[in-house]
Write a structure and sequence with these properties.
The protein has 204 residues and is of the alpha/beta class. The protein contains seven helices and seven strands; from the N terminus they run αβαβααβαβββαβα. Strands 2-1-3-6-7 form a five-stranded parallel sheet, with helices on both faces. Strands 4-5 form a two-stranded antiparallel ribbon. Helix 2 runs parallel beside helix 7. The structure holds flavin mononucleotide. Flavin mononucleotide binds next to helix 2.
Length: 204
């Protein structure tokens, strides 16, 4: 018989929050992310926050790209530079927080994705095609947008991340957005999105 407290520790789910809120303390998107995290049951979830900018993540260019190709060719998947991919692959819940920029999101989020798309860690390839290898059961995208997009084809951030969820093998995807943040008083759309985020967090 496993004592209840030990069982609770064993059962803790690992949440990986990738914080791409460039304006940091001034960011409304970060407030949305805080509402989501604060509503998670601390007895069931452990949250790790990753700030790709603070980590100094770099785009795949020049010798940085070449070095990666050589490591992959040698099968050195345990190299430290692939730690972000391993971290993503092992998370139970993946949460992105990023503002809506230029119809999608800030470049640092794409740089993060470049660094975590590693064959043999977050996805695999065989004669049938590509298969995601991530453990998470859900990806959540939290964002705030200056204007209102609804289902507009101009909105490319959530569409792209939903596709990435499928690529990584993550079966469920949710986007919670505060639209119209720069059209008037942002308090109302932000409060509505925070309520949705809290409801989603409590439902997990
Ligand atoms: C560089 C930049 C690009 C932006 N691009 C868009 C855009 O394409 N469409 C839009 O509706 N709002 C755009 N905005 C406005 C932001 O989406 C909006 O202010 C958002 O709430 C910012 O989130 P934050 O407070 O977390 O930084 C942009 C803002 C910045 C700074």
């Amino acid at each position: 018989m496993i004592p209840r407290r030990i069982w609770e520790v064993i059962a803790l789910k690992e949440v990986l929050l990738i914080d791409c809120c460039i304006r940091r303390e001034s960011s409304r998107t970060r407030r949305l992310a805080q509402a989501f995290v604060n509503a998670l049951d601390p007895a069931r979830f452990h949250v790790t926050v990753l700030d790709p900018e603070a980590e100094g993540l770099r785009p795949l260019t020049g010798v940085f790209f070449q070095a990666r190709e050589e490591l992959l060719a040698r099968g050195e998947l345990d190299h430290p530079r692939f730690r972000y991919a391993r971290q993503l692959a092992q998370a139970d819940l993946v949460v992105f927080a990023a503002p809506f920029w230029d119809l999608s999101f800030p470049a640092i989020l794409k740089i993060y994705i470049e660094n975590v798309c590693v064959e043999g860690i977050t996805f695999a390839c065989d004669e049938e095609g590509l298969h995601g290898s991530c453990k998470a059961s859900r990806m959540v995208f939290l964002t705030t947008r200056g204007a209102v997009y609804g289902g507009s084809p101009l909105e490319q951030g959530s569409r792209y991340l939903e596709a990435m969820a499928r690529f990584f093998g993550i079966p469920a995807y949710s986007c919670i957005a505060a639209d119209g943040m720069d059209l008037g008083d942002p308090a109302s759309p932000l409060a509505g999105a925070c309520e949705q985020a809290e409801a989603l967090a409590r439902s997990l």
